[in-house]
Structures are given as C-alpha cells and as structure tokens.
C-alpha cells in the first residue's frame, strides 16, 4: 500500500496531511480521527460546518476557523443578495460576491446584462457604511442612488462618512480638499477611464484608499525600474532592486480600502496608474465577449436604402477618417427620410432618448474608445449596427516605422533587407525600448543598442521608399496610402468591429438576443483584410451580402429574442491550473483579452471560453512545475517511511532560491548553496490555488498529459479538495482553442495508476541515487558526486567508448571530393598522398524513397543535434516553448501516430501550396496515449514569422533562431510524412589515386513527392580528374558518442523515457563525469567519471542496463494495472538496505 503525506498541508493544524484525508476534504487524522465515509456525500458547506463543530468539540480547532468563516461569509453575502434582489445570484454573480466578501481588489469585466451593477449595489447595501461609489456622470449617479435607496439609506452627491456615498468623478476632483481625510473601507468605481486618464485623480484615489505615501512612492519607483531595465547595462542590480520592492509592496499588510472597478476602455500607461496596479494587485481590464448571436453582412448600397429597409433601432458607426462632418451629413439625410436621429458623441442624454423611443437612430464614431462603441448598452431597443465604411486604424507611416515590428513589415513590402530574426527575437518590451530610444535620440546599451543601430539605418532606407508612394500599396494585413502630404499605414480594426457589432446582441434575462451587423464597404481591400483577421478570432467568419438576406425573417427573430428572451446561455465559473506561466498566458489569450490579478505574488488570468451556449469564466494559473517533492528533511529512509509493508513518501513544498535558482524540498529561510534570503516557496502557489478554488464552481486540472503531469495533477487535487470537492482532470495534446474546448467537454478523473507509477519511479530514484551518492562521496571524499538508475548505464557507455577510443588512437586521413569525405585509419603516421583523384561513375540506379515518419521525442533530439548541434536539454526547452505557444502538439512522446486532425492540417497546407497531387495521408501506426510531434496549424516558417511580426503579443515566449530552426524541422518532417514517395538517384563512384582506390554508393538527386519540402542528404561529386582537399590528424577509428548516439541507445535499450533523455546526460555533465568537446560535440568521460563508474560497476544488481530496463517495464505495467507498486518498491528497499555495511568494508570493493 502506498500513502502519500504532504507536510504543511493540513487545513487545520498546517501539519502533515494524508492524501486520502485530503481527497475526502478533511483535515489530518491527528486533528480529526475516524472514518472518512460519513463525510463523503455531504455537500461542501455542510461538510465544512460538521468538521468545524467536531474540531471545536474536541478542542482541536486551529486554522480551520478561517475556512469555516469564509464559507459562512459567502453564505451570508449570497443570502443577503437573495433577500434584497429577490432571486438567486447566478454563477458569475456568486463569484463576484465571494471576491467582494473576501475584500479582494478586482475588475468586473463582464458585458451588460450580467448583473454587475446589481451586484455592486447589493454589496454596498450589505456593508451599509464606509462605502464610496464613484460614477462618471450625474445621470448615472441618480440611477445608482435610486437603486441603493430602494434597499438602504444613501447619500447622493455628498459624503456621509458613516454610510454609503455616491459621487461623480468631477465632485471628487473639485471638492477634494473637503473630503481628503475621508477613509472609506470600500470603493466602487463605475468608470475606470476617469482614473486612467488623470494621474492627479489617481493620486486622490490612492489617498482615499489609505495607501501610505512610502508604499505609493515605492510602487512608482518599481514602475520606473521596470522601464529602465532595457536602458541600462547593470540588469542584475536592477532586477535585485525590483525583487526587493515587489516583496515590500506584497508584504504590506496595512488597512486600506477595498477597490473594485467596472471594465475600462483604456489601458493604464502613466506611472501613477501602473503603480496603483502593483498595490491593488489587479489590471484594469476590458469587457470580454461572452458569446455572440449576430448575422454579419455587407453591402455596397447607400446608407438611406439600408436604414429604410431595417427601420428604427439602429446604431450607425462612421469610420473615423470621415469625422463629425460626415456624421452630420448622414443625420441630415436620414432626418429628411422621417427618422429621428441623434449623434452619440458625448454625454448620456442621447441614450435616454433612444431608450425611451424618442430617437430612432444613433450615429457615432467607429472608434474603440468612443462612447458609441463602448458606452451604449440598450438590449431591447438597439436591433442592428451599421458600419459606414470598414472600421480601420491609421497611423503616419514615418512615425510607425520606429516600431521594429512595423518596420519589418513595411521593409519587406519594399524589398528592404532588415535583420528579421533579430527583430522577431525581441520581446514587446524590448521593441518598445528601441522605439522610445529612437524617438528620443538615445542609444541603448549592449545587444539592444546594436539592433537599434541596424534598424535606424534601415528606417532611412524605408523613408525614401515612403516618399515615392502615390496610390495604395497592399501588404499582408495592412495598406499604405498617401492622404495629401502624409503617407499612412492602415489596418482593419477588428476590435472595434467586434465591440461595435456586439451592441446589437446583448444578454437579456439570461439569454442572448439576436443582432444584425451591416458593413457599408468603402474599401474592398481593407474589407478583405478585415475578414482575414476576423477569422483568427471567429473561425468561419464570412459576412454575407445584405441584399441576399431574408430581412423579414431576421427582423422577426430580433423582435422575438427581445420579447421572449434570447438564446439561453449556461455560465459557470472555474479555476484552470496548468504547470507553466507561459501556458497560462497562452490559454488565456487564445480566447480574447484576459484580465490579470496577483494573489500572494502569483499571477492569475481571467478569461472567457465559449462553447456554443456554454460559457466558462475561468481563472487560469500555473504551478510552475512540481509543487512538492520527497522531503530532504531527516525523516524515514531518505524521505520515505517504510513500515509493515506500507510505503509512505513524505512530501515537502518546494523552495526556490531567486539568486542561484537552486531548488530545495524542505522549509528554508536562507539558501544553503549561496546564502541568499530571497526564497520563493510553492506554498504561496498552493495558498492562491486554495483561495481561488473556494470562489469557483469547479476546478479543472490541466497539467501535461504524461506521468509527471498526472502526479502534479494528483498533488493539486490533494491541495484543493478540502476547499472545493468538484475537481476534474482535463487533458489536451495541443494548446489551441479547439484542443482546450474539447478537453473541457471530456473531463475525467485522475489516473491513480499513472500516479503510482510516478511515485515508484521517484522513490526508487531517490533511494538508489541517495544511497549510491552517499557511497561515492564516502569513497572519493568529494561533495559533487551522484548516481542514479539511468545515469549509471549511460555513464558506462561513455566510459567504455572513451577507453576504446584511446586504445585505438592513431592517425586519420581525410580526402574530400566535392561534399563527400573518404576516411582512412592508420595506427602509425602515414605519408600524405599527393596528386589528383580520378572520379568516374560506374553505376546508377533510381530508387523509390519512402518519406520519414513524423518526429517522436528521441527522433527530434537526435535530428536537432545532428543538424544544428543543439543539446538535447535545450531542444526540450524549445519544444516546450513551441507546445506552450500552441504551435506543436505535445513533445514528450514515443509515438509516430498522426490523428485525423493532424492529417487535415497537412491537407490544408498542401492544398494552399498547390501540392495536392503529392498528398498521401498516413496515420503511421495505431493510436496510443500520445500523437507524434506535429504542427497544430498549416503554418510554415515564413508564415509563422509574419504572424509574430504582425502581432508580437501573440506568443508568450521570446523566439530565437533555434526556435525557428526546430519549428521548421518539425513542420517539414511532418508535411513530408503526409506526402507521396520521392525518386532518388544513386550513383556508384569509383575513385583512384596513385596508391589507393575506393568506391562509394551515394544519393545524388531527389525529386517529386516529399522531397519538395524535406530532403535527405545528397552528394555533389565532380567527375574527372579532381584535386581533393587532404587532411591528416590524430584520431581513432572508434567514434566517441554524441548526444544523438546516447539518446538513440537509450531508446533502443529501453532505459529511458522521453522526459529523461535530455536530463540524463546533463546530470553526468553537472557532476563532472563527462565533458562535451566544443569542436566535435562528442562526449568524453573524465578521470572522475571513469573512477566513479569503476566503483558503481560493483552494484550491477541496482543500475545495470537489464535491471533498469526491467524496472521501467514494471512501471509501465503499473500504469496498465498489471503490477502492484508496493511490492516493486519493497524489493528495491530490501536490496538497498543490504548495502548499509558497505562503508565499513570498502577495502573489499
């Protein structure tokens, strides 16, 4: 039997917690003895109350009171909402109410109809005192006062220090001197833009919140330091200052007001606004799109014809370049056609008139920040949105090209060569630093300065081309056009289109109303570009000709959904937990524009995932890998208790040193390696996870679909189950929208057999590694020694090959003809031949060449090393980046299988490239746990570079040349695997010199089929009398092993797994047993490694190839349920205990 115990994890005593107790949602057995069964089917709230009462009665209550209090507070706030609103809050409102009750600072980013105002009004009334409600206008002030006044007393337009005060932003600014000593406990801001626009307003808000001046100044200093990170050379010193300031701000525990804001249209840019973000712990976020029920259409008809057909209830958004003059012109035209029309430019009166039916049509600007796009929410009256002109953004090209990414796009258009790979490897922050430095005439230090210099030279070249632009120049996703004296770059504005058209489809009574959007096309090229970009956001986006619509039918549906209620949507809240922060960012960005907040130093992203009528509001966070490991404390047998045939691994949280990056699995205040006190603990991640789990309906564990991922999933489940029992394991093999949505549909439970397999591997690795390391350190009296189950055999291969190499040291003669090299070995130094080589073709044949299968992990590591000399560990990091960026499928796999989805990717790409005749779909074997490594989209290297150039924020990782090289290799290999065979020409060459002759059978040509995208090595050999290149050097006829050779042998002898190939050699290098030759990239055993292996060879029953392979096979059997994990570990335990006498009898070894 295996039972895991997790230190510092009991929700009551903070002591050790047994896994089975945690999964039952209970404290440890020391706090609450007895059977788990009576609690198993209790609802969560009842279970918490029952446990609390038992702990009180048994005089054992400790930390559990916090969990009980939180649950009680949730119930109290939600019950109050029921009482004053008259109905149960729905899932999202419950989430908000829980956050409000927990006194969290956060941003409400839901669209109108979700009950934001109702929730804030109810909570303000619940508090009843110390409430400051800030609104943008007097009319909204009156509305809020009326709503609060119906259930509680309220002060409207003045401050009641003991009650609820509703004030306008204008009042706060103008009357601030009279209220500056006012200290509310809760501040609700309806319009965050009022704060974002003005640093002075931010100052006032900070003071009202009660934030100490020194903390505010520290936060502003932190913003400045972050901005200077790329401008100065002493980055390490700046980073240390940043870390200390962040810790000080996060550690501030003084009493300040709770801040909650409604969604914003602007991004905070000023130092003061960003400083407030660091203190409050959340970003001001934009409203997110929850669902869309809109008919998208276009027309070339006149605006009068379309409006006449659709009637009242319309919003006309005029493309920005036309200005107010065009708005007034349209107003006059429609007014003459008997429509009541108003301009929606400023104020709120127009909306009141529209809502009351006094106005038929509203006209505003097609600007993302405009009041017409962002400020109109009238679900009943507003039936359709009409865009006068394709919505677009415009910037002066001469200014735009100061941005490196924009420069690259425009330079490509004019044929100007710029350092594209260097630009694409820039992070958005680095690109911004270069842009600012160019504008200010400053020079950045280091490599960024070198890139800046290159770009400034290219800017001058591009400016000359811009001067010659007369008409329109079309790019991939933009236009360049001359407007009078200036040249502009124009983009279709997809965000404005999404937000603007969304005004016609709103949530009403729990349903989504039908809406209609019509674009009056004024620029066909920009319209085509809009469709192209929209397809990245809404798959299958294809507006139809307005004149072809059955307008009567659509109008009836528009009216019905406003009368009876729209398409019902099912909204639920969840917490999605992944391993890596990169993956958390990627997933949250896949579905829109996430908001971010920080809980205990942990970044959490809120995103919305829509699957038909099902809407998930998800918090996405990362564990940063394993949160626990077998403890390094002096407990059990190297951290594992073994008693009465029960194996109990003892897990501690992981502590990471910020300074030296070392990891320790025991509680520490100071790093044992470098002495730094800057320590991060995974306990902060666990605490954030538990807090979030209590707020949501369900927890989705979305760790990697492999053995390690399953163990992390198990640890997460143990951590959160006492706080939320609704835990589901979801798996995906590609980080794409479809992959994530499908995973949410098909959630399952954790595979406990896979967890046991990982525990067995980790325990025996700890036991064998620590036992042998102890013996090695004792034998050689040196600290940096270590060995493990897999490292032992691999070290043996390298040691033996090094010995064989040295035994056969002699001379190597190389004769190079074309790109072919003939090699001879001589034991003694030979004479260097002279004279030409006679080359002739003595035979030729044509063979059918089969395409290679797509990559498995070992194939990828071998090929990447062979072609680019990139070490396996780095290849795995790059592959991880590519996977987490959504570009490739899961990269730890021993399968070559291709799914139907993968075949479709190949088919789409080959059709696009006009290679349809070469398509040959192949599944490459039966379906297994994983698929082969393949691209997730039909995106070749050139297209990928363009996509990153168009949207640098798209990828959450910083791309280097090796990222591009590895991706290109994966892409081409996969596409080749889905193509027809190629023809290969093999020639047999006879080569003669004075005293020697030889023959070589070589591939010289490839054509057709997969060779269009993927080539095998071919040889170009000149015929006739050739003067060769000749070299003579010391060497051996035994080849030393490379990374690729070791990985191949590990795979063939079954002593490794995709997750361990890279780590094994790195471990040997770290211990100094092996070095890698820089010139030839071969692995050479050191004297230390040779001595260590000679000692380890005495323990073949622990680390031989056969024992290691057998153990791995047993672990596979555990996964399938065919082997019992405890017996395997007990056998290893018995073998190791017999070594205890060895240190006293070392002389015999």
Automatic annotation (TrEMBL):
<keyword id="KW-0479">Metal-binding</keyword>
<feature type="domain" description="Helicase ATP-binding">
    <location>
        <begin position="97"/>
        <end position="230"/>
    </location>
</feature>
<protein>
    <recommendedName>
        <fullName>Reverse gyrase</fullName>
        <ecNumber>5.6.2.-</ecNumber>
    </recommendedName>
</protein>
<dbReference type="InterPro" id="IPR014001">
    <property type="entry name" value="Helicase_ATP-bd"/>
</dbReference>
<feature type="binding site">
    <location>
        <position position="93"/>
    </location>
    <ligand>
        <name>ATP</name>
    </ligand>
</feature>
<dbReference type="GO" id="GO:0006260">
    <property type="term" value="P:DNA replication"/>
</dbReference>
<dbReference type="GO" id="GO:0160097">
    <property type="term" value="F:reverse gyrase activity"/>
</dbReference>
<dbReference type="InterPro" id="IPR011545">
    <property type="entry name" value="DEAD/DEAH_box_helicase_dom"/>
</dbReference>
<keyword id="KW-0863">Zinc-finger</keyword>
<feature type="active site" description="O-(5'-phospho-DNA)-tyrosine intermediate">
    <location>
        <position position="890"/>
    </location>
</feature>
<keyword id="KW-0067">ATP-binding</keyword>
<comment type="similarity">
    <text>In the N-terminal section; belongs to the DEAD box helicase family. DDVD subfamily.</text>
</comment>
<dbReference type="InterPro" id="IPR005736">
    <property type="entry name" value="Reverse_gyrase"/>
</dbReference>
<dbReference type="GO" id="GO:0005524">
    <property type="term" value="F:ATP binding"/>
</dbReference>
<keyword id="KW-0413">Isomerase</keyword>
<comment type="function">
    <text>Modifies the topological state of DNA by introducing positive supercoils in an ATP-dependent process, increasing the linking number in steps of +1. Binds to single-stranded DNA, transiently cleaves and then rejoins the ends, introducing a positive supercoil in the process. The scissile phosphodiester is attacked by the catalytic tyrosine of the enzyme, resulting in the formation of a DNA-(5'-phosphotyrosyl)-enzyme intermediate. Probably involved in rewinding DNA strands in regions of the chromosome that have opened up to allow replication, transcription, DNA repair and/or for DNA protection.</text>
</comment>
<dbReference type="Pfam" id="PF00270">
    <property type="entry name" value="DEAD"/>
</dbReference>
<keyword id="KW-0547">Nucleotide-binding</keyword>
<feature type="domain" description="Toprim">
    <location>
        <begin position="573"/>
        <end position="735"/>
    </location>
</feature>
<feature type="domain" description="RG N-terminal-type">
    <location>
        <begin position="1"/>
        <end position="40"/>
    </location>
</feature>
<dbReference type="InterPro" id="IPR027417">
    <property type="entry name" value="P-loop_NTPase"/>
</dbReference>
<keyword id="KW-0862">Zinc</keyword>
<dbReference type="InterPro" id="IPR023405">
    <property type="entry name" value="Topo_IA_core_domain"/>
</dbReference>
<dbReference type="Pfam" id="PF01751">
    <property type="entry name" value="Toprim"/>
</dbReference>
<dbReference type="Pfam" id="PF17915">
    <property type="entry name" value="zf_Rg"/>
</dbReference>
<dbReference type="InterPro" id="IPR003601">
    <property type="entry name" value="Topo_IA_2"/>
</dbReference>
<dbReference type="GO" id="GO:0006265">
    <property type="term" value="P:DNA topological change"/>
</dbReference>
<dbReference type="GO" id="GO:0008094">
    <property type="term" value="F:ATP-dependent activity, acting on DNA"/>
</dbReference>
<feature type="domain" description="Topo IA-type catalytic">
    <location>
        <begin position="751"/>
        <end position="1140"/>
    </location>
</feature>
<comment type="subunit">
    <text>Monomer.</text>
</comment>
<comment type="similarity">
    <text>In the C-terminal section; belongs to the type IA topoisomerase family.</text>
</comment>
<keyword id="KW-0378">Hydrolase</keyword>
<comment type="function">
    <text>Modifies the topological state of DNA by introducing positive supercoils in an ATP-dependent process, increasing the linking number in steps of +1. Binds to single-stranded DNA, transiently cleaves and then rejoins the ends, introducing a positive supercoil in the process. The scissile phosphodiester is attacked by the catalytic tyrosine of the enzyme, resulting in the formation of a DNA-(5'-phosphotyrosyl)-enzyme intermediate. Involved in rewinding DNA strands in regions of the chromosome that have opened up to allow replication, transcription, DNA repair and/or for DNA protection.</text>
</comment>
<keyword id="KW-0799">Topoisomerase</keyword>
<dbReference type="GO" id="GO:0008270">
    <property type="term" value="F:zinc ion binding"/>
</dbReference>
<dbReference type="GO" id="GO:0005737">
    <property type="term" value="C:cytoplasm"/>
</dbReference>
<dbReference type="InterPro" id="IPR013824">
    <property type="entry name" value="Topo_IA_cen_sub1"/>
</dbReference>
<dbReference type="InterPro" id="IPR013826">
    <property type="entry name" value="Topo_IA_cen_sub3"/>
</dbReference>
<keyword id="KW-0963">Cytoplasm</keyword>
<dbReference type="InterPro" id="IPR040569">
    <property type="entry name" value="Znf_Rg"/>
</dbReference>
<dbReference type="InterPro" id="IPR013497">
    <property type="entry name" value="Topo_IA_cen"/>
</dbReference>
<dbReference type="InterPro" id="IPR006171">
    <property type="entry name" value="TOPRIM_dom"/>
</dbReference>
